[in-house]
Amino acid sequence: MTGTSSHTVQLPGDAGLRAAQDIAAALREAITANSAVTVDTSAVTSADLTTIQLLLSARKFADHLGRSLSLAASPQGPLQALLTELGFLGSSGQPLAEGSAFWTSTSSVKGKAQ
Known about the structure:
Blueprint: E1 6-10, H1 20-33, E2 36-40, H2 49-64, E3 68-71, H3 77-85
Helix pairs in contact: 1-2
């Protein structure tokens, strides 16, 4: 059953490869059951490329279903450092690559996933 509500998914401290299956399941379940999903990354203390891939994949999945996925706030700490290292964000946190505004915007527009 699809809800019309909003739901928040809290990422764990270790949001890397070891947690990937659990994070993917939580995101998939939330997106399937809600029209809007917000991802809270404030607890993330460890992230890797898997984290980025999961969030981008979840965003595309949400878009495919006509749902929205957004971040509760711009990433900080290890996640921001990783996004900077990978070229999604500049050193001041500004988006660098096409579609990178997802990482700095707390609102998501359906149909705009890159």
